[in-house]
Model the fold of this input.
Amino acid sequence: MDIDISYMNIEDLEEIKDVLISDFDDFWSYNILKGELEALNSKYFVARYLGEIVGFAGIKIIDLEAEVMNIVTRKDKRNLGIGSLLLEKLILVSKDLGLNEIYLEVNSKNCVAISLYEKFKFEKIGIRKKYYNGNDAMIMRKKFIY
Ligand SMILES: CC(C)(COP(=O)(O)OP(=O)(O)OC[C@H]1O[C@@H](n2cnc3c(N)ncnc32)[C@H](O)[C@@H]1OP(=O)(O)O)[C@@H](O)C(=O)NCCC(=O)NCCS
Done:
């Protein structure tokens, strides 16, 4: 699969606006994502296959840390390596910026996402009890060694 990863802009978001909830995920609304794209300390990327947006992901940078804000692959294109390419990009960009680490919070029931993060050597460093509608949030981190 020939996947192209590039910076995400507001035109990209407009392109998926109407299918955001049905085809991607239901917890990142258009308005929240628009705010994210406008934030100076955020960096978002979009994955395209045959010209179509098939995934996106972003980080927020605070001091020398990057937090993964979201990573999502279009429902009909999951388990094909797109999430891995997006996460790899977030890691590379964070390293290029000389950051100390990248971390995230993930629902402890989200086994697919957790195995994606473990594949990229993120480690579990903490739990936030009952964070997501009664489910625990797991905090995972990858420290960079230069
Ligand atoms: C998590 C998500 C982004 C993964 O995207 P993806 O494009 O399917 O990821 P990949 O195809 O690169 O797979 C990456 C790894 O995830 C794991 N994985 C993917 N699909 C899986 C499945 N159906 N069952 C178990 N593990 C799976 C595997 O470890 C896989 O690595 P491998 O193929 O080398 O073994 C995608 O499932 C998604 O969009 N989920 C909804 C949004 C979400 O939960 N995001 C995370 C929020 S913290």
Notes: Strands lie at 3-7, 42-49, 52-62, 65-73, 101-107, 123-132, 135-143.
